[in-house]
Amino acid sequence: MNLVTIERHILEQQKLFPEASGELTDLLTDVAFAAKLVRREVVRAGLVDILGFAGTTNVQGEEVKKLDLFANEKIINAIGQHGRFAVMGSEENDGIIIPPKNETGNYALLFDPLDGSSNIDVNVSVGTIFSIYKLKGDDPGKASISDCLQRGSEQVAAGYVIYGSSVVMVYTTGNGVHGFTYDPTIGEFLLSHENIVTPKTGKYYSINEGSYAQFNEGTKKYLDYIKEEDPATGRPYSTRYIGSLVADFHRNLLTGGVFVYPPTTTHTNGKLRLMYEANPLAFICEQAGGRATDGRNRILDLQPTALHQRTPLYIGSEDDVIVAEEFEQGVR
Ligand code: AHM
Ligand code: MG
């Protein structure tokens, strides 16, 4: 039996790049450690009902935090204190975070601490998503928001952790996509999915169809199309929609399929966040052979202008994403 921990795997990957300083290895190891801390709390989530509701005080007299805020704090503390990141951005914080000892960090971290938070209370999978950039300048003490607002194509690493029936961490440094399953008996993430390649076409479509009335004509026509009977193109596709992006993305990555969060009348620019959700998943998806766009443009080419900016998202198996885009663009 050849057990490979995530730390060992990251080290081995780094050897492929002799010029690498090893910093990225430390960064990813920190992220994996933070994920273990978040996991510990996520699996105890139901116990909040016994130990005290969020927003009240627990038996130790401490205030019980909502799990997403707790995860946010854990990640900031676990990762921020090592001085490897000069600046951080979280979906839960309005502005950038400058961690202590930032003067030694050469990287920026952007993350969504607990994505799919509406699913926490009902035992449905949630996830953590992260994205790493090198600073644009060479003075970490001067790191600023512009280090965070880089195009997705500048990412040096990205990944996510899914807290599901098992806990899985997936990452890329631009050299394929690799997945690790957490073994709670030894406290390690073990290599379980090496070099993930997503199918060119799948059989699932994932979209919140409850918002049908809010979709534009292109999206409505696409939904009619995907449900038509046509064995030659594998239609009708099956619906799969969890409402946790990480879980919907992870399933489609492994089995093939397309996830769409289009513009709606309430979310005219889509709902999902470019920096915390779309960019990291787009990097992973492309590395696995898939495609990610906003319906017109490659996600990784978009120039961000704000930390919390939103984008429509069409992501998954290449052929399926292209079809969805064609409807969005009105060419079908
Ligand atoms: P969150 O960051 O507040 O959890 O929102 C993001 C989530 C995604 O995980 C998911 O894909 C999407 O919102 C679902 O939205 P909707 O309920 O509109 O379908
Ligand atoms: Mg989110």
Proportion of strand residues:
15-25%
Give every kind of bound small molecule, once each. 2,5-anhydro-1,6-di-O-phosphono-D-mannitol, magnesium ion
Largest beta sheet: strand ordering: 1-2-3-4-5-6-7
Count of runs of 4 or more consecutive helical residues: 9
Low-confidence stretches: none
Helical percentage:
25-40%
Which word captures the global form? globular
Span from first to last CA? 51 Å
Domain module tally: 2
Structural class: alpha+beta
Main pleated sheet:
7 strands, mixed
- For the secondary structure, the number of strands is 14
Reading the helices and strands in chain order gives HHHHEEEHEEEEEHEHEEHEEEH
Domain Fructose-1-6-bisphosphatase class 1 C-terminal: 199-327
Subcellular location: Cytoplasm
Organism: Chlorobium limicola
Binding site for Mg(2+) 1: 91, 112, 114
Q: Any descriptors?
A:
Fructose-1,6-Bisphosphatase, Chain A, domain 1; five-stranded mixed β-sheet; alpha+beta; 332 residues; binds 2,5-anhydro-1,6-di-O-phosphono-D-mannitol; D-Maltodextrin-Binding Protein, domain 2; fructose 1,6-bisphosphate 1-phosphatase activity; binds magnesium ion; seven-stranded mixed β-sheet
Q: Could you describe the 3D structure shown?
A:
The chain has 332 residues and is α+β, with helices and mostly antiparallel strands. The protein has two domains: 6-193, Fructose-1,6-Bisphosphatase, Chain A, domain 1; 204-329, D-Maltodextrin-Binding Protein, domain 2 (3-Layer(aba) Sandwich). Helix content is 30%, strand content 22%. The chain has nine helices and 14 strands. The protein has helices at residues 6-15, 23-42, 48-51, 67-80, 145-148, 217-227, 245-255, 274-287, 318-328; strands at residues 85-90, 107-115, 126-134, 155-163, 167-172, 177-183, 188-193, 204-206, 238-239, 258-261, 272-273, 291-293, 310-311, 313-316. The strands form three sheets. The protein has a seven-stranded mixed β-sheet with strand order 1-2-3-4-5-6-7, sandwiched between helices. It has a five-stranded mixed β-sheet with strand order 9-8-10-14-12, sandwiched between helices. Strand 6 and strand 7 form a beta hairpin. Helix 2 (23-42) runs antiparallel to helix 4 (67-80) and helix 6 crosses helix 9 (318-328). The longest helix is centred in the first third of the chain and has 20 residues, at 23-42. It is globular, with a radius of gyration of 20 Å. The N and C termini lie far apart (51 Å). The mean pLDDT is 92. The structure holds 2,5-anhydro-1,6-di-O-phosphono-D-mannitol and magnesium ion. 2,5-anhydro-1,6-di-O-phosphono-D-mannitol (AHM) is lined by residues 91, 112, 115-117, 208, 243-245, 271. One of its GO terms (biological process) is gluconeogenesis. Substrate binds at residues 115-118, 208, 241, 271. GO terms for molecular function: fructose 1,6-bisphosphate 1-phosphatase activity; magnesium ion binding.
